[in-house]
Task: structure prediction
Amino acid sequence: MEWKKEGKGLDYYGYTVIKCENIDKLNQIINSWIVLFEVAPDDFSLTGNYMPEEERYEKNLFNKQNVLSQLKALSDICKEAVKKNKYILHNGI
Result:
């Protein structure tokens, strides 16, 4: 398997290896999102991709408890990776 050179951000369609030194940064971002979404309404929408055929943006609907649950689980993965000195493999969006 051929790996791309190091960069910033997550690869949209390919693999991203998140190394130990960046896992703490990722977890800080995740925890900031948790704080943000804790004050969201029970159900909320976020703007998605632009759909040129329809000349509008997607409207993505979310449930606050589902979002918080997923973010907390991701934070736990980060903590475990740091604790065990492991990497995180992200397989595209």
